[in-house]
Specification:
Four Helix Bundle (Hemerythrin (Met), subunit A); mainly alpha; 7 helices
Length: 230
Amino acid sequence: MNAQNKEVAEYGDQNDQNDQNNDNNNNGHKNNQTNKINLPNKLTIFRIILVPVIMFFIVVPVFSESWSKILAAALFLITSLTDLLDGFLARKLSLVTDFGKFMDPLADKFMVVAALMAITASEIFTDIRFIAVWVTAVVFFRELAVTSLRLVARSSDEIVIAANFVAKLKTLSQCVCIMTVLLEDMVLTENLKTPPYLFSYITMGIMVALTVLSGFVYFKSYWKYIDPAK
């Protein structure tokens, strides 16, 4: 081999080695990005972490009953806003993942069911406990049924069922209801001179109706996964 051919061969080998190193670096960078939890999913996890804190302030009077309600309502509002924010960021930044589609509605369920259970158990809300127990039961069993349906659909066809429009309305009504229950006596009853928990009862009725309706829509759409005739 002459000197010119030898130089070309060595140059080619060096380029191949550089290309391989670049490919390895790119693959490593992609793996790091893949393994990293994105911002919307971090917000979802943060929302789940706040759930027991909200329950604590609802059940345990801190400083006074009024302050406990205010703190619980403030934290609940923060968790509700993170629900809107993580969904917006996931779509805006193209960060929609199967984890997010599964855990985001699940985090909503944790947040709502836990708050309703805490209200039912709290001595602060004994006046509406009888109604709250039944409302909590309806919400709990609906969420349990839909979550089970999600798991069946995912195990059967690897389908991740995202929240539909009716389900989002249901979640909004649940958040409004809980905020109303927590703050009505301090904000509405005193200023408007309305009967105690009037708006709480109204929002509970709307919430139950949308909760049942959204569950019906889910089961109608994905009935094939649990059809007993098959």
